[in-house]
Amino acid sequence: MINDSKVFLGNEYLPNAPVKCTIGTYRVSAFAPSQFAEDSTAAVLIFGYIHNPEVLISPAYWLTLLQQPAPMLVAALDQLNGAYNLLVLNKVNNSISVVTDRLGGQRMYYWSTQEGIWLSPSLTGLANIANFGHGTPTNFSVPAVMELLNYRWLSGTTTPFADINKLPHAAVCQLSPGSSIHTLVRYGILPEARAGVTDESLQVHADRVHQLLLANIRASVRPGDRVAVLLSGGVDSSILLGICCDLNLNVVAITPQHEGHHNPELETAKTFAAELGVEHRIIAVEEADVARHYADVVELLGVPPRCHSAVSLLILLRQLKGSFDKILYGEGADTLFGSKAVKHFALRFKKNQRLKKVFRYIPYWPWLFKVLPLPYKLRHLLQFDALNEAIAVNQIVLQEPLKASLNDRLVLDKELIKAGLNVSNVTVDTYERALLQLKQIIFSSSVINHFYELESLAADNSIQLISPFVCQPVMAYAANLSDTSYFGIESVKPVLRKIGERYFTPSLMYLPKYGFPVPHSNWLKGPLATWGREATVFFSCPIEYLADEEFAWCIIGLYLLAKRNHILPLRLFEIDGGVDALPG
């Protein structure tokens, strides 16, 4: 039975107070849920938020839904929009079911003991409950550290804490007394294209996607909500701003400006806002604020940030707190409607297929391939493996001496990484299948982690994040776009650019896009430099490796995580000096 269930009700819990209950030998410990319901059969807890107002949280509804066949369960879960973890505590059979959301905006972590399993949506909060934050040291999880240093994201169940794991995103998991966690089903992956769909004109696609985005934003924003759009100066955010104007929302465009750093898209962002007549706030990111906010990002996420922009976003969100209810963000649009990375992958895949057809007619070609001094590009094309290439798209580029030294010391298990990604289990034997796998892997790693970071930072400032491009109807429609409608002739994302012509002059929509650069190189040499030097001692790492910015960004985050959470030093390279030389 659930002990002391009254702690869930009304305002009796504090926002950051642990909520505890026991089913059989399993203990649930979590920070206060945003919604709670209980009857004689079960209790339902929602952490985070679900936009759909018609979704009921009655225990009977969820108990029935969880007993449905996988396709029916997945179809229902795909309709949920928001950032949530949902726990169903079944009093009848003493089991706990956990539904994690499609975008991983909220995560659920667990810690197993002889008493049972503790669950929490806060990684550092759970570490404190496990006494790691009260002076009892713990170790880094070596597989997690290796994955972070190579990718800056964690695909599977590991966390930087050796004894704490996480449930996968977009999953339904079940816990029962005396057994381990069992994943019942994964959902939320990018859908496959339906057979026999005839490609329409660009204008038809643009009109339909426009209507789907309108519907999603209309359903996600309530009357009276104060809405901010993160306006980068690119295609995706400008479209969202235009749709908000169509819907007559109380909207303001927000753009960060980094001190002493030229942003090539800032003038474009100003022009977008001016053409719509929307208020445009440019928020300064001062270098003096960077170190403190970087440390706060690490503490909030429980990992080093995947994206350099996370620090800028936290500074921005803290200035927006109290002024806005919702923030719109264009994450996911590239993967769905036109990615340069996918385009380059497609070209390499086609060349690989053509080469294989030619080499089939050459006797003993596998043996010749090994012994002949083939040009690097030709050898690389012949060795092309779609799944490995898809994972490599998300891998950060480390300098070769550092990468070799790191891999000599610790092994990166790519098979575990593959297993942790939420992708369809299909044989990558055709061009269409290969592209689907790549999109799913990018979505399941880069998009999910970026969304998690911004959602976590927004939630900490009492702002809800809306990402209209990754609702299920939009995702399903994008899956059926032809290569022409996806890659375009000269510019990728032709469908979205066509939508943009509704709101802006065409010349503005087809300007070259440079992204929204963050001056992390300056930060690593300036406000983060001291922590970088301390991190090299903590990890027994040659200080010259800090010249690799991708490595430095991550190793500083890991060092701060260790410093705040009593994690023991990890000798990555076994150089002289090591932790004995650590100041203090």
Automatic annotation (TrEMBL):
<dbReference type="InterPro" id="IPR001962">
    <property type="entry name" value="Asn_synthase"/>
</dbReference>
<protein>
    <recommendedName>
        <fullName>asparagine synthase (glutamine-hydrolyzing)</fullName>
        <ecNumber>6.3.5.4</ecNumber>
    </recommendedName>
</protein>
<dbReference type="InterPro" id="IPR029055">
    <property type="entry name" value="Ntn_hydrolases_N"/>
</dbReference>
<dbReference type="Pfam" id="PF00733">
    <property type="entry name" value="Asn_synthase"/>
</dbReference>
<feature type="domain" description="Asparagine synthetase">
    <location>
        <begin position="210"/>
        <end position="534"/>
    </location>
</feature>
<comment type="pathway">
    <text>Amino-acid biosynthesis; L-asparagine biosynthesis; L-asparagine from L-aspartate (L-Gln route): step 1/1.</text>
</comment>
<dbReference type="InterPro" id="IPR051786">
    <property type="entry name" value="ASN_synthetase/amidase"/>
</dbReference>
<dbReference type="InterPro" id="IPR014729">
    <property type="entry name" value="Rossmann-like_a/b/a_fold"/>
</dbReference>
